[in-house]
């Protein structure tokens, strides 16, 4: 079973911390972290993204955004990006890890998960639903990996 997952988005305040919380919820004991390609380092989770998490019984209050570094990629067994552009960028920065880097929506068409930042509340709800479905689609692969 995979032990360490790194989830990546742009600012590390909406999508990747949501996925991080969901992976932890579904697979207790799994080491999950998140980072951003253009992280708003030190920032808390976006208030709307955090509120959506809380509506689903999950806590994002301790999250602090951090920048993605090659060292974080090297430490992960699996690296998951929210958009194909994220995956491509991560693979470019860490070509040796390319076999461990995938799209979070890999098992669903594959599909990008749009960034809800600066959008109305419905965009955060939609992003949560997409992220939740994508995380759940990874669960059988984690257990067999």
Record the SSE blueprint.
Blueprint: E1 4-9, H1 15-26, E2 31-36, H2 47-55, H3 70-75, E3 78-81, H4 84-93, E4 101-103, H5 121-144
Helix pairs in contact: 1-5, 2-5
Corresponding CATH architecture: 3-Layer(aba) Sandwich
Tally of domains: 1
Number of H/I helices: 5
Radius of gyration: 14 Å
Q: Describe the strand arrangement of the main beta sheet, using strand numbers.
A: 2-1-3-4
Class per helix and strand makeup: alpha/beta
Query: For this structure, what is the CATH homologous superfamily?
Result: Response regulator
Q: Give the CATH topology.
A: Rossmann fold
> Which CATH class is shown?
Alpha Beta
* H-E order: EHEHHEHEH
- Rounded to the nearest angstrom, the distance between the terminal CA atoms is 5 Å
Number of strands: 4
Shape field: globular
Major sheet description: 4 strands, parallel
Can you give the helix content as a percent range? 40-55%
Task: Please state the average pLDDT score.
Answer: 95
Strand coverage percent: 5-15%
Point out poorly predicted stretches.
none
